[in-house]
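Input for the complex:
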Amino acid sequence: METSNKSIIVFSLLILLALNLVTWFFILSENNLTEIDFLDVGQGDATLINFHNSGKIMIDAGPNRSVLDELGGNLSFFEKKIDVLILSHANLDHYGGFFEIIEKYKPRVFVFNGVNSTSETFQNLLTLVKNNGMAMISVRAGDKIKIGNDVAEIISPLGGVDFSEKNLNNSSLVLRVIINGYRALFLGDADGSFLKKIEDNLATDILKVSHHGSKNGTDEALLDLINPKIALIGVGQDNKYGHPADVVIDLLEGLGVKIFRTDKNGNISIKFGEELIIRD
Amino acid sequence: MLNRPNIFLFSVISFGAGIFIASFLFVDWVWILSFSVLISCFSFWSFLCQKNLLIFAAFVSIFLFGIISFQISDYYGQKNSSVYLNGNSIKAVGIIYDEPEFKESSVWLRAELKDSYQGRVLIKTKPYAKDFQYGDEIYFEGKLEEPENFLDFDFKAYLAKEGIYSIVNYPKLEIVKNSQGSVIKSFLLKIKNSFEEKINSILPEPESSFLGGLLLGERQSLNADLKEKMQKSGTSHLIALSGYNITIICSAILSLLLFFGLKRGVAFWLSVLFVILFVLMTGASASVVRAGIMGILFLLSQKIGRLYHPRNALFLAGLGMILINPKILRFDFAFQLSFAATLGLIYFHPFFERILKSDKSSFLNWRSVLATTLSAQLAVLPLIILRFGYFPVVSPLSNIFILSLIPITMLLGFLAGILGFVFSGLATIFGFLSYLLLKVEILIISFFGSFKFAIISLDKIREWVFWLAIGVVVILFIYLQKRKLKYLEQWKHPINQ
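Predicted:
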C-alpha cells in the first residue's frame, strides 16, 4: 500500500513538473519581433517570415523535404502552423519543399504567379493544393498582401503577360515586403536585364539576390537601382552550376553590401526590432 | 561434447555453411550427386565398423543439403522471375505488394506482375507522383532492365534476395484499382501510417523522424546528415528496429496488459499476437523477423516453464529463416548484423560483465551499458569493417550516453502517438517530454558524430583489418570456451538485445 502511495506521489509530481516545463517553454518561445529566416536548404531558396502576432508566410521552400528540418529548428515546439505559401515561380528548387510543408504545417493559402508549368511534378503540387482545400490565388504586379501592419507588394510580372516553359525564371514573382519600415526585396530567379525594366522604385534594405547569385541575375546597373545593405544568397555547397558567380560577389562586395550565403552561413535570421538583429 | 543442443547447433552451422558456399559458386549437380554417393558409402561403412563417425557423415549430408537448397531456390527464383522480359518494353498490370519506398529523388514501387506476365519488378517513379499504396493495382508502359550494381554495393543480389530481377525506370504509370492486396496487411499498414501521422503532427523534424525510427524502424525521411552522424557515432542500430527496440516494446506491452489486470495466460497470447502483428506491420524484414521469433520463443519458454536457451533460440530462428529464403544468409546485411550482435551478447557479454564489474551501480549505468555495447560491437566489427571500410572509435562512448535514455523516450513517444488519437492535449504534453529527450539524443549523436576521429577510414588495409578482427573474435571465443565459463547460467538478459 505504502509503495503504491509513493509512486502516485512521484507520478503526480512528474506530471506537475512536465506541465510546468511545457508552460514555461510556451511563454519563453513567444516571439515579439517579426523575423525573416532565410533557410539553408542546399541549392534552392526558402524563406520563412514569422510576423509578430499575425501569422507566418513561406516564400519558396527549396528543392525537397530538407526544409522541414530547418523549420523544426527555427519554430518552437508549439508553432505547428504556417498560414500562407508564396511560390516565386514553377522551378523545383523553389517548390519541392512545399509538398511536405503542406502535409505537416497545414497552410490555408497558396499564392503564385498563375503561370502553369507542364512539369508533372508541378501538376502534382497543384493537385495537392486543391485536394487540401487550400485557396489558390494568382497575383501579378500591383497586387498587395496585407499582414497586420506590414505589407507584401507584388511588383512583377505584369498582368496579362504569358511565359513559355523556357522563360519561367522571368515569370518570378518579385516581392517587396515592408516590415517596420524596412524593405526586403525578393527577386526569385529573374534575369537582371528583365528586372531593370520594372517601372518601380527598387531601392531596398535587404535583397534576396536573384537566381542563387548566378551572373545573369545580377549586374552593376541593377544593383545601382536596388542599392541594398544586406544580400541573401540561397546556394548549396559545391553545387554543379557554380553558383554564386564570382562577378556577382565582387560587385556586391565592391558596393559594401553585407553578404550572407546559406552555403557558408547556414540559416540566416533577421529580426526587426529598433534595428535589425542578424544571426547566422 | 555432442549433447543434444550441440548436435542441433552443428547441424544448423553445417546447413548454413552449405548455403554460404553455394552463394559464392555454383556446384555442378554431377559433383553433388557423386559426393552424395560417396557419403552414403562412408555412412554404410561407419555404420558397420565405426559408429561414432556416423555423426560426421550426417553433418556432411546436411552441408550438402544446404548447397542443394540454395541452388534449388536460386533456380526457381529465376525461373519464376521476370528475367525473360529484361530488355523488352511492355505494357503490363501488376500489384504493389509492399509499401512504397520514398527516396530523395524517386519513389520505389515493388510490384508483382499479373495476367500474361510473371515475376516481381522494381518500378522507379517521380516523387509526389501519385498516392501509391500497398495493394494498388497499377498499369504501366515501360522497359524492363537488369539491375546494375553500384560502385561498392551488390544491388543485383540485394534485389534478387527479394525475388526482384528487373527494374523499370520512370514508366508511364496509372493506378487501376485500390485494395488488391491482403486485407490484414492493408489494415496493419493503415494503423502504422496513422500512428506515424500523429507523431508527425505532434513533433517537428528531425525529432519526429527519429522517434519514428525508434518505434517503427528506419525512416527514409531522416535527413542524410543526421544519418551519417549516426553511422559515425555507431548509433545507427537505434533506428534499425533491432531486437533491442522490439524487446523494449514487447516488455512494455506485456506489463501494460498485466497492469490492466489481464490473466497471465491471456496476456501471454496477446503479447505473442502483438509481436507477430508488429513484425508484419513494420515490413517483416529479416532482422526484425529474427528478433520477433526470439521474442516469442522467450515468451513461450516462460509460459511452459522450460529454460530459455538463447543460443539455440537464435539458431532456430536463423534456421527457419534461411530455410524459407537461403539468400538472406549472404545478402541481407541487416540480418547478418542482427545475428552477429546477438551471438556477441550470448558469448561475450558475461566476459565483459565480469571485467567491467557490471553489477556495481554506476553513473548512467555505464558499466552495464558498456558491457552490452562492447560485446555486440565486437561481434559485428568484422562485418562493419568489410562493408563500410572503417573502424568505429567513439561508438562505445556515444552508446553509454544515449542508450539509457532510449527506453523512456520510446515510451513517451509511443504514448504521445496513441493519445494523439483520443486526447490531443495530453498527447502534446507527452510529445513535448519526448521531444526534449529526442533533442538531447540528437545533440549527443551530432556531438560524437562530428568528431574527426569518430571513425578511422581503412582504405587499402581494409581486408587486413577485417581478418585481424575475425582473428580477435575467434581467439576471444576459443579463450572463453576454454575457461569453461558457464555463460548460459550467468545470462541475465533473457531476450537478446
